Amino acid sequence: MELEKNERINALFAFYQPLLTAKQNDYLQLYYADDYSLGEIATEFSVSRQAVYDNIKRTEKILEGYEQKLHLYAEFEARNQQADRIRDYVLSHYPTDQTLRDLIDGMENLEAK
To answer: Which residues form the signal peptide?
Structure first.
């Protein structure tokens, strides 16, 4: 459960990072991406562990709020699932059609940007 939550927060952070303050960015980057402890972050910024914890929890709620309103991550996931289904279908029904493969690769490369 905790791993799923961490993965979700990291994904939301990737989508909505520009909307966060510098402090929110720093704390989440250190906590989730760089695996710092609350104490290490607190020491780094000369604040209490509780202040770091409160900021991280508040920022998690902000990220979830952005996702509830904008759905960027959910739509990204849906597009990726659909692209996977298309790729699987093409590979199983048209394995020698290089044009179809190239089109799918192009679509997937657009999504990766």
So the answer is: none
